[in-house]
Amino acid sequence: MTALKQTAMKELEKLPDDKVNFILQIMQGVNGLYNDNQSEKKEAFE
């Protein structure tokens, strides 16, 4: 695990569960945007 991910995990551990849920939703949204962009790039090259 990278140092950046370790830092993120430590910060998550400090948060109450309701805040972790909010952060998780943000992370899933960002990940979805990233995956969508990768799919579009792959389609463009095909």
Task: Give a verbal description of the structure.
This protein is mainly alpha-helical and 46 residues long. It has two helices and no strands. It has helices at 3-14, 17-45. The longest helix is centred in the last third of the chain and has 29 residues, at 17-45. The N and C termini lie far apart (34 Å). The mean pLDDT is 82.
SSE topology:
Elements: H1 3-14, H2 17-45
Short description:
With 46 residues, this protein is mostly helical.
Helicity level, as a percent range? over 70%
Order of helices and strands: HH
How much strand?
under 5%
- Number of continuous helical runs: 2
Q: State mean pLDDT (0 to 100 scale).
A: 82
| Span between termini | 34 Å
Give the CA-based shape: flat
Task: Please tell me how large the radius of gyration is.
Answer: 15 Å
Count the strands? 0
Please summarize the sheet with the most strands. none
Low-confidence stretches: none
Structural class: mainly alpha
List keywords for this structure.
mainly alpha, 46 residues
